[in-house]
Every structure is written in structure tokens, then in C-alpha cells.
Amino acid sequence: MNRPQHHTIVISDLHLSDAEPIHENNPLWKKFRRKEYFIDKDVAAFLEKLDAELEAPIELVLNGDIFDFDSVMSVPKHGEFSFSSNEKHRGLNSEEHKSEFKMMCILRDHSHLCMAFQNFLQKGHKIIFTIGNHDLELHWPKVQQALINAIVPNNVHKEQVVICEWFYLSGGDTLIEHGNQYDPYCLCANPINPLVRKGRKDIVRLPFGNLANRYMVNGMGLKNPHHDSSFIMSGLGFMIYFFKYELRIQPFLLVTWLLGALRTLIVYTKEAWLPPLKDPLTLTKRIEEIAKRSQATANQLLMLRAFHAHPASYNPFMVLRELWLDRAILLMVIVWGCFQIFSTTNVVVEVSYWWFLVPLFICLPFFAWYSQGVNSDVRAHAKAAESKISPVGRAFGVSRIIQGHTHRLGHRFIDSVEYINTGAWTQLFHDVECEKPYGRKPFAWIKPTSGNHRTSNLYEWKNGEFLPIGMGDKSAAEKLA
């Protein structure tokens, strides 16, 4: 098979959302989402450098989570459509017209980047979007059209833009997918038919991670949803963080967490088992269309689908544990049990109310031991996903697999399959004040060579240059987010 003689560039996890306004009374509230920290100029300069140094056409693959619908907090101000109080404070639901509104808000606040995409397409290059977990609402036709209208004025270069449901096969030798389909917390339960009917409304069924981001993290203004250590903490770590920041800025964080966790659990439980909206008479055609956009065959698509993880809804305890509700339930059981012991004792012998604390103090060390020993499964599932790289590569007949999703850079061989994870471009900070930025702007670069072969490597965009990241470079590893 002849390999294409063009360069393929893969980046992922830009997490573009709407800009957060400055809150004068609370300047740290979602400060990391202000427009001054947008990465638009970096991406635009990166695209200009690609065009200047590489021969056209360039195949640019934007590999999932390019847009972050879950973090959009804007709502219409002029009665365009109705929305609930919860949507006002936690973000709009995933109905088509609401997803379209969110897309328009993102495109409005990132107009500079849209212009950069326009210029890139006008130079004869190609842009492929693969859908990740945070931009699942790209499945809506009106949302896709809004995107195309923004980067392809007058549809002049429309054929150079492709939107793939969850994967893309580049040059017959490289499988590119966001990677969330191997994560039980973040996978789209049915990427072939992602829509469900909820009451009288059609919605995109969102995974657990998206709902937790929407109903919990959107109400926690100091926690960056793309920096997992800001909200996945040990009990001790949470206490330190709470007294350093939250007690002063958001003293009722525990109430926000509990209400958000319960809403996440209820909504996820209700939606997880809804049947997908699909037409059996057109299912074969739908599969063929998805495969064609992804440059694969229908058999390859179905084979890849078989490797996907089971949603977290198959194991409710996983969900309770990630929401910290298992610890909340255990604590309530301990308090209830201690009250029962005290009440029973008081019937036989009248005792002081202080005796209620005796069994409570006896049980609290056990609670602390249990809480400290519970760790998030996010990293474990990321490692489990990597165990599928080799069998997926063999089954798909590719020598290279490129993913994102975990925000953790990686480049190595897993058995005979070359594996690259492109990390994330989203700006991260070590501190709530956003004075200590960190992170790289990595990308995978697949180069044509003489003969029937392509080579690839992991690079970073830094100081206007393409700098290689060596295979196995431990400094490339970033925290999950």
C-alpha cells in the first residue's frame, strides 16, 4: 500500500470554552478561564510556522476535547429559549439548540483562533476533528454547521474539513482516536448512536465524567477541571486546601459538593440506561458513513467498537467512590449507629449527651483509615487503556496509534505498535492565583519518507520552534487531568 506523501500533525485537548469575566469581589473565581490565559495566539503561531516550513497539503488532526462544552457557563440574555435555574448556575443541557448556543459562545470568544483555522485552510491544508468526551455535543448537525461556518466562510474550503465520530485512520498506518472510549468514566456509551430521548427532549447522552464536571466542578470556582490534583485529593490534602483557600472564598464547598454529587448520581443513573435513538433500517448506512469519514471500513469500525470499555454505570460502587459519596454514606451510618447506641443506653441508664461522643471517637479512626485508603481509579483506568494498544493495533492492521485524553505525554513501543499520547495544550497552573504556569504544547508529527514508509515523533511547540521530545523522556509526563 502506498503511503500518502504529506505531513500529518496531531494535537489534542485544547479545551476551548467561553471566557470567564473578572469577578471584582472574588478575583480568584475561575481565574484560570480568563481570556488573558487563552492559548489562541500560540495555536495561530504554530499553524503559521507549519505552513511556512512544510509543503502543502498538511493534514492537521485535532484529536478530541478541542472544545469544552461542559465548562461553558454562558446563557442567553434575551429570551432566545428557556432554561432552568440549575442550567443557569451549572451550564446548559445537551439539547441541540442549547449545544449550538454554547458552540457560538466558544467561537465568539475564540475568533482569533477561528481566523487562524481559516487561513490554514486557505493555504490548501486539511483539518480533521475527532470527537472526544468534552466535545460530544459536536454530534449535533447544527453544532457542526456552526463550526464550519466559523472556519470556512462561504463554504469555499468545506471539503477540507472533516468531523469524525471518534477515530480517524491516517494513511492506512496510523489510528488516531481521542482515547476516552477506553475510559469507563468518560466514554460515549454508543458513539454510533449517541443521542437518547429524555422525556420529550432529544439529548446527547453524556458520560459520568462530563456530568461530574458540570454539576460539581462548575460550582467550585477554584478547581480547574483539567487539573485533576485540584479536586482528586486525599482527605488530608483536601483539608489543607480547604483551610488555605476554600474557607475564605467558598466556605460552603461541602454543600456544593454534596448537592452536585447527588445530582450527578441521579442524572447519570437515569440517563445511563436510556436506549439510544437509532433507526434499524438505516443503521448499516450510518456505520458506512462514519467509516468513510474516518477513512476506514465498516468492519474495522465494528472491530474497534468491540474494544471499548464498559460504562461506569455497570458498577455503581465505582461512581459512588469517585463522587466521595461512599465516604459520606459511611460517615452517616457511623453517626446514626452512635446515636442508636446512645439512645438505647439512655433508656436503661440516664447518661450525659457527651457519652454520644464515645462510640463516635471509637469509630472515627476506622473512617479515617478507610477514607485515606480510597484512591481514584482514573489513573488505573488510563493504564488499563494502554494495555489495549497492542491488540487494537494488530486487529486494525496499523503500526502506530495516537491518542490524547489523559493529558499525559507518552511515546514508546507497546509490543510492535508505536504508541504516542499527545498530552494537552490547555494552560495549567500550580497555584490558584495563576502565577505559576506549567505544561507543554506537544504534538505528534508523522513525516513522509522515500519509499513506502512514514516516521513519527513527539514534539513540543516552544519559543516559536518545533523541539523534539525523546522517546521515553520522563520529563514529558504530565499529571492526568
Automatic annotation (TrEMBL):
For this entry, list what GO says about its biological process.
lipid A biosynthetic process
Q: Which keywords are on file for this protein? A: Cell inner membrane, Cell membrane, Manganese, Membrane, Metal-binding, Transmembrane, Transmembrane helix
What GO molecular function terms would the record report?
metal ion binding; UDP-2,3-diacylglucosamine hydrolase activity
Q: Which GO terms describe its cellular component?
A: membrane
Q: Where are the transmembrane segments?
A: 328-347, 353-370
Per its UniProt record, what InterPro entries does this chain match?
A: Calcineurin-like_PHP, LpxH-like, Metallo-depent_PP-like
Domain Calcineurin-like phosphoesterase positions: 8-185
Q: Which domain of life is it from?
A: Bacteria
What protein name applies here?
A: Calcineurin-like phosphoesterase domain-containing protein
The organism encoding this protein is Halobacteriovorax marinus
The beginning of the lineage is:
Bacteria, Pseudomonadati, Bdellovibrionota, Bacteriovoracia, Bacteriovoracales
